[in-house]
Amino acid sequence: MSIKPKQLEMIKTVFVILFFILVSLVFIIPFYWMLVSSFKPTGEIFTDSLSLWPQNPIISSYTNLLDTHFLRWYLNTMIFAVGYVILGLFVCSLAGFAFAKYKFKFRNLIFIVIVAAQMLPIHMQLIPLFIMLTKSGIVNTYAGLIFPMIANPLGLFFVRQYMLGIPDDLMNAARVDGASEWQIYYKIILPISKPALGAMAILFSLFAWNNLLWPLIVMRTEEMFTLSVGLSTLIGQYRPQYGMLMAGSTLAVLPIVLLFLKMQSYFISGLTAGSIKG
């Protein structure tokens, strides 16, 4: 008995749907376990039996967070993320605009060198960066946390590739109308580049929100820690507080999830368009 083309297509669709459901579960189950564990006593988190809901729900893990610097860690992380996104997008969009739309000597060579810097592991840059911050006197400050990170080679590459697809005729028409180069960048290039900038905003936010190594190096006092560094201090050698860690991690995930849901259209269209420009 032969299978009709429509039936074959339906079978393929069912298998594709089942595959993506399984992939979704792989990502969702850890988050669900983290959420449920935040309402469990510490002794119940690592029991042999897997429960879909806590047998003795508690909220003390959340209330106990108030006895730490959790709210300050949250504020520090928001300042880091917002400052890094705004300044990073400004620098990357301005540099991407220059590399995409202006011709100058050694343009391609300079661009290749900058992008090649992305291949250097951050560990090679930690000591030089820390020495520079120490000599500048901005260790344990927001400026020291944000400024060394804003020149992102990946962001520059992505924005440049997107801007290469913007017709030069738009810029020439604006120049004929008397627009300055800054007005062309601010009033024409940036609005057209919203999808790419939206995608970069999400990626930059994820980097800043989840970054552990760099804040650990720069911030020296507990009240200046970010969420990732602060939450790591809850796992002590003798008394690990897993319930508070799960509660803090649950609250830490919420802003990123909400940001992605808000800007997912920009993220998808930006990545798609950026991948075919150039």
TrEMBL record:
Keywords (A to Z) from UniProt: Cell membrane, Membrane, Transmembrane, Transmembrane helix, Transport
Family to which this protein belongs: Belongs to the binding-protein-dependent transport system permease family.
GO CC, one annotated term: plasma membrane
Protein name: L-arabinose ABC transporter membrane protein
The organism of origin for this protein: Halanaerobium saccharolyticum
Keyword Transmembrane helix among UniProt keywords: yes
Gene3D superfamilies per record: MetI-like
Biological process annotations from GO: transmembrane transport
Membrane topology value: Multi-pass membrane protein
Major localization listed first in the record, in broad terms: membrane
Transmembrane segments: 12-33, 73-97, 109-133, 139-159, 196-217, 242-261
Localization terms from the record: Cell membrane
InterPro entries, per database record: MetI-like, MetI-like_sf
Domain ABC transmembrane type-1: 74-263
